[in-house]
């Protein structure tokens, strides 16, 4: 009986927290707009085969560099025009959303899991473990992130998977640092001592007792890293080190379009716009998350 | 202050050693034979291979190789480029001023616009200026700068034909480098139109490179100002009847600048990453383009040493920022 009562109140607390979070998140109009755009993006990625009018790799030889439909010479079959080998821009952009979301999810997952493991170890044990781990993290942080990612890709070989691994490695110290700081702050609190006295082992203390209370800054950082990952992966694609043609990854599309910048503005403009809008939407969401999750900034 | 400086320097030693280790180890984890990679020769006979391995020190134990690497480093020997056969350090020093010029102009642009915008947005919190400028800052922060650069080229170089597409100065002008900074050298050369040419080449790349730091600085200045404006000493100053402009400029801004200066310092890493993209788009002959070219040409000695030099520069700049921080904020120094 008492057991169920405790569970019920847990769920109630969780509902209260979600409601409270949503209340604060909703205050931020930008964040809500960002969320809407992000949902549209997910929708585009998931239903790409249904909504894209053409196959993204199909080359229509009779329709090379067709301008968008509203411009003279545009055709209604290709709403946003075609690229230099006659592929439909709109379809490629829609399929490109799959790449960007996939990149964001993979990079952030690897970086978060790695960073949390390393940061929790460093923060929980302190001493030489902490010193060694944090010095290694300092070394990674000493390199400009894009440069280190480039060199890592040079080592691993160009390609989307390697680009994602490289970016995740470069981002991981940020999560390690945040986790470490949060764990160190929480470690000395009474509830941790209470759990330890009650007989909880180190693993349980680290991941079950302390970690859930350190999540807020990590969630905010994860959102920001999601957008940076999209930007950096697109940059690597643009430099020829990320996704390889004919992938419809937005950065790779830009790299292929570069030579036509003065002849066909649409092949350059749209992929970049897609990157900008996605990144902006996620950053807006991140701002809203920070306001809603950071108790220091909450009003009243 | 001396003590503060020494602690900071001591703290950097393990990080620097770590950087050298990464740069050294990078070639060893590349797939393939390091001798072939570093010598850049094809179809070697076994004798020649052994000779090269000995010459490059690859026949020694790993740790000894690393120590040799460090010793050579301390003598300023960073190896030779496989493509040009010139010492890497010579190439780096020849190209670095171009990147530095671009970086300095970009960071000046970002600071001179970003700080006033942030201050204004903070003291007019909630106004249309605040909303417009902070929206613009968020757009700037989210900008894929390689695309932004292409857009500016389409508009200013393509449609308006105001600016050149690439390079540092028109081919019409030639003068020996004195400072390595094209803006200064073109003035010193006394050639008519040289400065204008250098300036028109520099303007678009520096705007592109300044975009993200500008957005970050404006946002950071605004939030630092908002925090400081809520402090008791600002209220006291206002209550004393001090002119509002003086309260803002003297009492608030000086304290708000402390985190802002850190932010500006942290942008150096952003600038180095941005330089790779900016220099590629505008064919700017700096170290960013040099690095990306070397990576695609598999000129590994250059990649190895370039990585090391760039990380060292970022580290030194961060140290200088830390020291400035200590100078303007005695609380840090005495902690």
Automatic annotation (TrEMBL), chain A:
Localization annotation: Cell membrane
Gene3D superfamilies: MetI-like
Keyword line: Cell membrane, Membrane, Peptide transport, Protein transport, Transmembrane, Transmembrane helix, Transport
Main location: membrane
Transmembrane intervals: 31-52, 99-126, 146-171, 260-282
Domain ABC transmembrane type-1: 97-286
GO BP, sorted A to Z: protein transport
Membrane topology: Multi-pass membrane protein
Domain of life: Bacteria
A GO-annotated cellular component: plasma membrane
Pfam annotation, one family: BPD_transp_1
InterPro entries tied to this protein: BP-dependent_transpt_permease, MetI-like, MetI-like_sf, OppC_N
CDD domains for this protein: TM_PBP2 (cd06261)
Signal peptide: none
GO MF: dipeptide transmembrane transporter activity
Coiled-coil ranges from the UniProt annotation: none
Keyword Membrane: yes
Family: Belongs to the binding-protein-dependent transport system permease family.
Protein name from the UniProt record: ABC transporter permease subunit
Organism: Paenirhodobacter populi
From TrEMBL, chain B:
InterPro entries, sorted: BPD_transp_1_N (IPR045621), MetI-like (IPR000515), MetI-like_sf (IPR035906)
Keywords in alphabetical order: Cell membrane, Membrane, Transmembrane, Transmembrane helix, Transport
ABC transmembrane type-1 domain segment(s): 96-321
Membrane protein topology class: Multi-pass membrane protein
Membrane-spanning residues: 9-30, 102-123, 135-157, 169-188, 195-218, 256-284, 305-328
Record flagged with keyword Lyase: no
Entries under Pfam families matching the protein: BPD_transp_1, BPD_transp_1_N
One GO molecular-function entry: dipeptide transmembrane transporter activity
Compartments it resides in: Cell membrane
Gene Ontology terms: cellular component: plasma membrane
Similarity remark: Belongs to the binding-protein-dependent transport system permease family.
PANTHER family: DIPEPTIDE TRANSPORT SYSTEM PERMEASE PROTEIN DPPB-RELATED
UniProt protein name: ABC transporter permease subunit
Species of origin: Paenirhodobacter populi
């Amino acid at each position: 009986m008492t057991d169920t009562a405790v569970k019920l109140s847990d769920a109630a607390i969780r509902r209260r927290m979600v409601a409270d979070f949503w209340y604060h998140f909703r205050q931020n109009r930008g964040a809500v707009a960002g969320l809407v755009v992000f949902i549209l993006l997910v929708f585009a990625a998931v239903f790409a085969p249904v909504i894209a009018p053409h196959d993204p790799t199909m080359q229509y030889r009779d329709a090379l560099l067709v301008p968008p439909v509203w411009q003279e010479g545009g055709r209604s079959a290709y709403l946003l025009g075609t690229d230099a080998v006659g592929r439909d821009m709109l379809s490629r952009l829609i399929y490109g959303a799959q790449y960007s979301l996939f990149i964001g999810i993979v990079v952030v997952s690897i970086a978060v899991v790695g960073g949390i493991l390393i940061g929790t170890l460093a923060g929980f044990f302190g001493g030489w473990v902490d010193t060694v781990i944090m010095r290694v993290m300092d070394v990674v942080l000493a390199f400009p992130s894009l440069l280190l990612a480039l060199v890592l890709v040079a080592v691993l070989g160009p390609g989307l998977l390697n680009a994602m691994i490289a970016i995740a490695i470069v981002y991981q110290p940020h999560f390690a640092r945040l986790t470490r700081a949060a764990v160190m702050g929480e470690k000395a609190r009474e509830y941790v001592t209470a759990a330890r006295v009650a007989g909880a082992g180190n693993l349980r203390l680290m991941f079950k007792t302390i970690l859930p209370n350190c999540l807020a800054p990590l969630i905010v950082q994860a959102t920001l890293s999601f957008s940076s990952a999209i930007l950096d992966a697109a940059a690597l694609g643009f430099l020829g080190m990320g996704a390889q043609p004919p992938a419809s990854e937005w950065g790779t599309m830009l790299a292929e379009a570069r030579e036509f910048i003065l002849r066909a503005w649409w092949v350059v403009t749209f992929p970049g716009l897609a990157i900008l809008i996605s990144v902006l939407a996620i950053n807006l969401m991140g701002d809203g998350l920070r306001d809603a999750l950071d108790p220091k900034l909450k009003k009243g | 202050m001396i003590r503060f400086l020494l602690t900071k320097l001591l703290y950097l030693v393990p990080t620097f050693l770590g950087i050298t280790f990464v740069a050294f180890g990078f070639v060893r984890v590349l797939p393939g034979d390091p001798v072939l990679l570093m010598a850049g020769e094809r179809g070697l006979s076994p004798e020649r291979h052994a000779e090269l391995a000995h010459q490059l020190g690859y026949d020694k134990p790993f740790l000894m190789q690393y120590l040799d690497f460090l010793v050579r480093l301390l003598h300023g020997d960073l190896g030779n480029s496989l493509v040009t056969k010139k010492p890497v350090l010579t190439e780096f020093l020849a190209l670095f001023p171009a990147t530095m010029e671009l970086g300095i102009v970009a960071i000046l642009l970002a600071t001179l616009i970003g700080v006033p915008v942030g201050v204004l947005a903070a003291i007019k919190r909630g106004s249309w200026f605040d909303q417009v400028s902070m929206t613009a800052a968020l757009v700037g922060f989210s900008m894929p700068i390689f695309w932004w650069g292409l857009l500016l080229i389409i508009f200013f170089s393509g449609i308006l034909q105001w600016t050149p597409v690439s390079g540092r100065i028109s081919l019409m002008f030639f003068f020996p480098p004195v400072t390595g900074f094209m803006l200064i050298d073109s003035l010193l050369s006394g050639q008519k139109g040289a400065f204008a040419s250098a300036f028109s080449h520099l303007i678009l790349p520096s705007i592109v490179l300044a975009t993200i730091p500008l957005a970050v600085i404006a946002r950071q200045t605004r939030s630092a100002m908002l925090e400081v404006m809520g402090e008791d000493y600002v209220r006291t100053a206002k209550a004393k009847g001090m002119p509002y402009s003086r309260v803002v400029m003297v009492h608030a801004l000086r304290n708000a600048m402390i985190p802002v200066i850190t932010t500006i310092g942290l942008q150096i890493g952003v600038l180095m990453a941005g330089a790779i993209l900016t220099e590629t788009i505008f064919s700017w002959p700096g170290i960013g383009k040099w690095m990306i070219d070397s990576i695609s040409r598999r000129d590994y000695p250059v990649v190895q040493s370039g990585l090391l030099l760039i990380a060292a520069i970022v580290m030194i700049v961060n140290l200088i920022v830390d020291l400035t921080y200590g100078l303007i904020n005695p609380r840090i120094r005495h902690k």
